[in-house]
């Protein structure tokens, strides 16, 4: 599975962005998908994860209630809708895929990674 994340950019605090992650390969629907982020000088942080069907979703504490993860298996794409953005959301956002059944919150357990897209939130 190859992943490509896009949709990052510069946005003011309180604004919204939607990230997309396009996957190649016909087995996308059988991969759990995750979003992580990494700010300068900080460790990679779990943001969200979603199961094969989309029925199960997990969120990091810092984004609960503001971010929404979804997927469209027909388009081989997973999305991250980010609302009410804050300056502390500034980071490079990565999408990841794993062939297991359970959405994962630990970055090291994912098999595949995209190249990342930069989100900058100005105050």
Radius of gyration: 13 Å
Roughly what fraction of the amino acids lie in strands? Answer: over 45%
The percent range for helix content is under 10%
Span between termini: 37 Å
What class, by secondary structure content?
mainly beta
SSE string: EEEEEEEEEEE
Number of strands: 11
**Outline:** globular
- What's the oligomerization state? single chain
* Count of helix runs: 0
Average pLDDT for all residues:
95
Would you identify the regions where 5 or more consecutive residues have pLDDT less than 50?
Answer: none
The largest β sheet comes out as: 7 strands, mixed
Describe this structure in words.
The strands form two sheets. Strands 2, 4, 5, 6, 9, 10 and 11 form a seven-stranded mixed beta sheet that branches. A four-stranded antiparallel beta sheet has the order 1-3-8-7, with no helix packed on it. It is globular and about 40 Å long. The model has no long low-confidence stretch (mean pLDDT 95). It is built from no helices and eleven strands. β7 (67-72) and β8 (77-82) form a beta hairpin. The protein is mainly β and 123 residues long.
């Amino acid at each position: 599975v190859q992943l490509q994340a896009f949709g990052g950019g510069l946005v003011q605090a309180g604004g919204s962005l939607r990230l997309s992650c396009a996957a190649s390969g016909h087995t996308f629907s059988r991969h759990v998908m995750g979003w992580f982020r990494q700010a300068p000088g900080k460790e990679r942080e779990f943001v969200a994860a979603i199961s094969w069907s989309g029925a199960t979703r997990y969120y990091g504490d810092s984004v609960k209630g503001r971010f929404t993860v979804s997927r469209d298996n027909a388009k081989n794409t997973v999305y991250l809708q980010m609302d009410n953005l804050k300056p502390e959301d500034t980071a490079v956002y990565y999408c990841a895929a794993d062939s297991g059944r359970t959405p994962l919150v630990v970055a090291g357990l994912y098999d595949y990674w995209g190249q990342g897209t930069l989100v900058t939130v100005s105050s």
